Amino acid sequence: MIKTEHLDGVRLLRHRQPQEHTDVTLTFAVGARDETLRTVGVAHTVEHLVMSTVRQLPIQLEAEVDLMTTTFAASGSPARVGEFLNRLCAALADPPVDRLAVEAGVLAAEDGWAAHPMAAFLLFVRYGADGPGLAWLEGAGYDGLTAEHVTSFAQKWFVPGNAVLRVSGPLPEGLELKLPQGSAPIREYPIGRLPDGPSAVGYGIPGAAVLLTLPPRDAARVPSLAMSVLEKRIEEQCRHVAGHSYVVDSQVVGRDFVIFAEAREGTEEQVARAVGEALTDLAAHGPSEEELALAVARLEEDLATTDRELAAAFGTTMRQLMGDEPLPPADVVLAKQVRPADIAAVLRDALPSAIGYADQEVLDVWKAHGFRPEAHCPVIPELPAGKVYKPSLSARTFFKDARSLVLVQTEQGLALRDHDGIHEIRWEEVAGVMRTDGPTVVLGINGCAIPVDPQVFRGSGATLEVLANHTDPGLWFNESSFSRDEDDH
Asked: What is the pLDDT of residue 488?
């Protein structure tokens, strides 16, 4: 049994296998989903800044930020690894923000994603500009982050009570994990948007994907087995049979599972059809005995090749830190009793709130599988009453799409009618306001974006004053110069 140990307030987990060198992994329960629209990218920025302080150490170093966690790892002699941890934690307590401008350029050049673009887009459809949905958005850009953004984020999240340190090999002597002091933050993650009936959304990423919200994983891991079977069938068809895809993968965020398949140019329709057929066929008939046996064997192999006791302790601790419900230990005996009908039932129950994705040009492929194409953000049935702004004559003359646009300022917020429908952002639901060389773009937590442009909408300059009076100045930001540079090219 893993005993409870702490070092300077950080939960310590030790691997039992003896070895002479030391491997450490320091994981914090904070990731991209803990940012705001105004501070998108701040977790990645913190990681870059603190890693710059240890980059000259002659050992193997790694760091990663994903949607849910930030991880720092090192491997080497106990003394060097101890030096790494001590310097890293000191930098987290006092980030070297004097490097902020330099690292902003490096981060922009890296152009990293906290999730695959298709997964990020579907999570944005599900959650809007909040929580996991932020992985899709750029916000103010790395050059829009301030020293205060970085320092306050580090002080809030990189505290001892929000961290787990795993160690293999000798524990370095003289460790001082002098992290910022404070309690682990209490999270309130968004509930998100659950469609009434399966829906499908489109964009320009070549490929297809589906987001399924599944029940909590049980001891038999039926939801996980269902996703394993679905992913393997999609991979078999899209890659090994048809040769349309190279990347077929999945992302898990809480109870949301996203499975995606990239498409070779010209095969977007075939990949979308394969994803839809795999999902709906498995939901109707379940997998074959061979498919299910392979999924169970993969689960069994994974459990057999890991330190189950330590992995369970790590998983339990991280779930506690993230505010997630505990999971029962995986039981291979129970997993082997799962039948194809059990897999079908899980997928069938998830279908009503499923969100499919395909390239915009072939989105109708999902219709054949009972999915309703819709806008990627909520629409309302009719324009609310308020002050109406219509496009100027010149805008209607030169821009065909402008002829159907209508902007409405109401007492509660803003509404816009465009080719997708009618969108609304209430004042209390504003996630950010972006100033650009053209319009001022109001971004809602619900995922909608409404441009206010006096050059397009006659007289709408007054709306900008009303907007300023109803929103926190801290939500306003300038479009990233990196985005403008990309547009120029």
From this structure: 45
Mean pLDDT of the chain: 94
Confidence of residue 144 (pLDDT cuts 50, 70, 90): very high
Whether 387-488 and 199-373 are alike in CATH topology: the answer is: no
199-373 under CATH 3.30.830.10, yes or no? yes
Q: Which CATH superfamily is domain 5-168 in?
A: Metalloenzyme, LuxS/M16 peptidase-like (3.30.830.10)
**If we measure between CA atoms, which residue out of 126, 103, 76 comes closest to residue 354?**
126
What are the CA-CA distances from residue 222 to residues 232, 260, 299 (Å)? 15, 20, 11
In this prediction the pTM is: 0.95
Q: Which residue carries 């150490």 as its tokens?
A: 57
Measured CA to CA, the distance from residue 102 to residue 98 in angstroms comes to 9
